[in-house]
């Protein structure tokens, strides 16, 4: 049809050049649009019918337009189109009633067989939005991982792209509700979300939902829901559009990451082989497999390396998870793993690759029905077996079973299991190597310790040693009970710096040094001073990087059953606890000196009176110091425990074990050593004491005293030798010593003769020449007695000699 450039019904503002925005609606806003505007034109191009939508689009009423050429509504009509016929479609600008223009896109079509033409027009921006939306909808609908559903205000599905198999669910037809597809509870939860979106207009983005289909309620599926409200052109709610994403891959990947992180956090904290294997099984079940077993070579559990050709029969079950699940009869922790026949799939196992068996494949490999019944859990449908390889060694294997309706294993899960098995194998191998070293260190430690119990005239003793656990390793704690001359007893407790073999070796050197120094009968403070000098030499010999870890603490005490007194000194060691015969217990107040690694500070000897039947407890800090308490809290607790457990009718070794069970942790971080000594006393009737005057005639007096006393004791058979010994010792004291001088006899299983003077001169045993008139006194003493010696005190020295009493034990 012809189009003329004629302006009809233009307002004054329009004829003067209106500045309105093209495409705007009334009041300058976008026009409301519920559908296309329609007009019917006759053969001359005049409007014969005008719809309400056309009136809303242009602002002109039907009576203003009908009968007039449609060209009067077109603005800026090109000259070359004045005589052109009406095109089938196009884009033009129409005048609006208020004077501005509207950009529209139109289509034309013949009405029936008449000459009339139907024109449909809509704002161009609405058409563009519709085309883009349609394209977007087509693209989304083509995604097989995204299900789109449009629900009306009653949440009935009016449109969806769901097909059979989408999201592994049944087909969804228009007119259905979520409850027709999902289980009732899941549908109720989803509809509550959609109803909230419909009512508030607030969209929901990627909300995770676990759902089950009505046809398969036992199986859970992971969905991610995004939903937004649909509105008409006037902003009225018309429904909800929901996008359902299959979230299984993301959840599976997140679960794999979480599992790998949990393995890294939980597996390897313990340095016990079986505990590490159990931690690994507990992490994998039931997250990775419904049932998980960890089998290890028997030698690995013991801390040794496995054989190069590891197979069934060489391994035993080390861990099962979950522990509450009923495994097949006969499968228990520690049970040997049966030898399985060779199979092509097992070759990849030997190269460190996990192997996956379906139930039929596993049964075909095993072949033996009884073995299948023994190995296969109830309702199992697949198993993954992964080797535990570390440092070129095959330590064992992980077996993960899936049962019931759980999914079969995938390739991604096989890769994940390979990583987990590698990390678990390293943790188990670390525990194995620690077990081997710890076992060797503890064995060395026990070999270097003295007998657990001793029985001497001074006291009966019992020692208990508890090695560290939880990865700490032995730390060189020790105790000792050393019998000294004159029926005295030395009690020792010490703690070496460091752990493992070096600490055990240092402990052995210190114990040997203390025994040597104890034979010199030094005072406790002097002995510790010399021991500190030895530590300084050991530190100087150590490599430069290890000098700071050479050292320790020590408590040295000497108990004399004749005087019933105990002298002690401490080198940075906790004080002993004395349990009196009345059952009360308290720590002994001593003045501790510096630890053995330090020098320059003196040590101080403390002397206490000890009643017969009392218990003296020496210990190391591992018994009183724990993670939740220090020595200030642990020492009163130890005193209370000693008062409760130390009973006269109870053996000391039983008391020691009960104390450790009461005070020690399940897996102590430090060694704990405890030495208990129940004191005895030599009766006054078994001792004799005389003061020796500084007169050579006193030698004959001493022989008279000896003769009278031995006759009273019934030791006439020792009269001759004792007289000679006493004569030589008293003569030397008068000739070379200084008063005051004393003579003492002690009777027990040996006869002890002691001569004390105030001189510090050290007697020496020498070989006299044939022409010498003297120098044979100590030689005679050494030949007549069992042994002899000299000890120095603060006020002089004491020379002693021992003779065995025949018939004594």
Question: Which helices and strands, and how do they pair?
Answer:
Blueprint: H1 12-15, E1 37-41, E2 47-50, H2 52-58, H3 62-65, E3 74-75, E4 89-95, E5 101-110, E6 117-123, H4 124-141, E7 146-151, E8 157-160, H5 184-200, E9 204-213, E10 216-231, E11 237-246, H6 248-266, H7 273-284, E12 291-297, H8 298-301, E13 315-321, H9 344-350, E14 355-358, H10 359-366, H11 369-375, E15 380-390, E16 393-403, H12 411-448, E17 453-455, E18 459-466, E19 477-483, E20 489-496, H13 500-519, H14 524-541, E21 552-560, E22 565-571, E23 577-579, E24 585-587, E25 606-609, E26 615-619, H15 631-645, H16 652-663, E27 672-679, E28 687-692, H17 698-713, H18 719-736, E29 741-747, E30 750-757, H19 777-784, E31 787-793, E32 796-804
Helix pairs in contact: 6-7, 6-12, 7-12, 12-13, 13-14, 15-16, 17-18, 18-19
Q: What can you tell me about this protein's structure?
A:
There is one protein chain. With 809 residues, the protein is of the alpha+beta class. 31% of the residues lie in helices and 28% in strands. It contains 19 helices and 32 strands. The strands form six sheets. It has a six-stranded antiparallel β-sheet with strand order 2-1-6-5-4-3. A hairpin with a 2-residue loop joins strand 31 (787-793) and strand 32 (796-804). Helix 6 (248-266) packs antiparallel against helix 7 (273-284). The radius of gyration is 51 Å and the shape is elongated. The termini are far apart. The model is unreliable at 1-32 and 770-774 (pLDDT under 50).
């Amino acid at each position: 049809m012809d189009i003329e450039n004629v302006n009809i019904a233009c307002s004054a503002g329009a004829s003067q050049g209106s500045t309105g925005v093209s495409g705007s609606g009334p009041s300058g806003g976008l026009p409301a649009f519920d559908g296309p505007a329609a007009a019917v034109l006759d053969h001359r191009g005049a409007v014969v019918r005008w719809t309400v939508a056309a009136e809303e689009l242009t602002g002109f009423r039907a009576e203003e337009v009908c009968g007039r050429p449609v060209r009067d509504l077109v603005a800026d009509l090109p000259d070359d189109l004045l005589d052109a016929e009406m095109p089938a479609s196009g884009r033009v600008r129409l005048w609006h009633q208020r004077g501005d223009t509207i950009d529209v896109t139109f289509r034309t079509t013949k009405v029936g067989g008449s000459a009339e033409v139907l024109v449909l027009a809509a704002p161009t921006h609405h058409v563009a939005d519709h085309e883009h939306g349609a394209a977007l909808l087509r693209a989304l609908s083509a995604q097989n991982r995204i299900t789109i559903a449009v629900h009306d205000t009653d949440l009935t599905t009016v449109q969806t792209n769901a097909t059979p198999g989408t999201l592994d669910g049944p087909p969804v037809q228009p007119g259905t509700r979520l409850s027709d597809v999902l289980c009732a509870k899941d549908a109720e939860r989803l509809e509550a979300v959609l109803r909230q979106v419909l009512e508030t207009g607030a969209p929901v983005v990627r909300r995770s939902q676990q759902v089950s289909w009505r046809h398969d309620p036992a199986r859970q599926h992971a969905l991610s829901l995004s939903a937004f409200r649909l509105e008409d052109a006037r902003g009225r709610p018309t429904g909800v559009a929901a996008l359902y994403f299959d979230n299984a891959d993301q959840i599976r990947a997140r679960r794999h990451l979480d599992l790998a992180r949990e393995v890294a956090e939980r597996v390897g904290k313990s340095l016990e082989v079986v505990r590490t294997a159990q931690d690994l099984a507990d992490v994998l079940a039931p997250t990775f497999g419904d049932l998980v077993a960890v089998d290890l070579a028997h030698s690995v559990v013991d801390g040794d390396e496995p054989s190069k050709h590891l197979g069934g029969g060489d391994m035993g079950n080390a861990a099962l998870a979950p522990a509450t699940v009923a495994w097949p009869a006969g499968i228990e922790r520690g049970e040997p793993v049966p030898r399985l026949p060779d199979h092509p799939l097992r070759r990849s196992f030997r190269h460190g690759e996990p192997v996956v068996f379906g139930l039929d494949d596993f049964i075909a490999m095993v072949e033996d029905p009884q073995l299948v019944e023994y190995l296969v859990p109830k309702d199992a449908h697949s198993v993954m077996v992964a080797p535990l390889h570390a440092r070129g060694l095959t330590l064992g294997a992980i077996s993960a079973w899936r049962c019931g309706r759980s999914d079969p294993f995938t390739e991604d899960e096989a890769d994940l299991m390979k990583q987990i098995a590698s990390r678990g194998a390293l943790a188990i191998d670390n525990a194995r190597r620690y077990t081997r070293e710890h076992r060797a260190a503890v064995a060395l430690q026990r070999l270097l310790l003295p007998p657990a119990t001793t029985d001497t005239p001074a006291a009966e003793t019992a020692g208990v040693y508890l090695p560290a656990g939880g990865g700490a390793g032995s730390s060189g704690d020790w105790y000792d009970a050393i019998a000294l001359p004159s029926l005295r007893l030395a009690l020792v407790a010490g703690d070496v710096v460091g752990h493992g073999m070096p600490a055990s070796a240092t402990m052995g050197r210190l114990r040997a040094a203390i025994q040597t120094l104890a034979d010199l009968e030094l005072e406790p403070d002097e002995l510790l001073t010399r021991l500190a000098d030895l530590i300084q030499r050991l530190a100087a010999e150590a490599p430069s990087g290890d000098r700071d870890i050479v050292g320790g603490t020590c408590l040295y005490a000497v108990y004399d059953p004749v005087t019933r007194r105990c002298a002690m000194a401490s080198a940075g060691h906790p004080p002993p606890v004395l349990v009196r015969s009345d059952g009360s217990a308290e720590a002994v107040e001593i003045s501790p000196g510096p630890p053995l690694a330090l020098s320059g500070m003196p040590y101080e000897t403390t002397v206490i009176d000890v009643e017969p039947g009392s218990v003296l407890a020496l210990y190391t800090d591992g018994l009183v110091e724990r993670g939740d308490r220090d020595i200030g809290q642990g020492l009163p607790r130890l005193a209370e425990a000693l008062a409760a457990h130390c009973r006269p009718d109870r053996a000391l070794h039983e008391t020691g074990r009960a104390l450790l069970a009461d005070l020690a942790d399940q897996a102590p971080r430090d060694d704990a050593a405890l030495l208990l000594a129940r004191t005895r006393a030599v009766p006054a009737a078994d001792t004799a004491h005389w003061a020796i005057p500084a007169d050579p005639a006193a030698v004959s007096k001493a022989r008279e005293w000896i003769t009278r006393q031995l006759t009273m004791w019934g030791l006439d058979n020792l009269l001759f030798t004792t007289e000679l010994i006493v004569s030589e010792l008293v003569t030397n004291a008068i000739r070379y010593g200084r008063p005051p001088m004393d003579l003492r006899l002690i009777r027990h299983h040996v006869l002890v003769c002691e001569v004390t003077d105030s001189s510090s001169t050290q007697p020496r045993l020498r070989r006299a020449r044939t022409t010498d008139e003297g120098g044979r006194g100590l030689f005679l003493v050494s030949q007549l007695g069992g042994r002899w010696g000299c000890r120095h005190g603060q006020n002089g020295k004491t020379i002693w000699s021992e003779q065995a009493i025949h018939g004594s034990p």
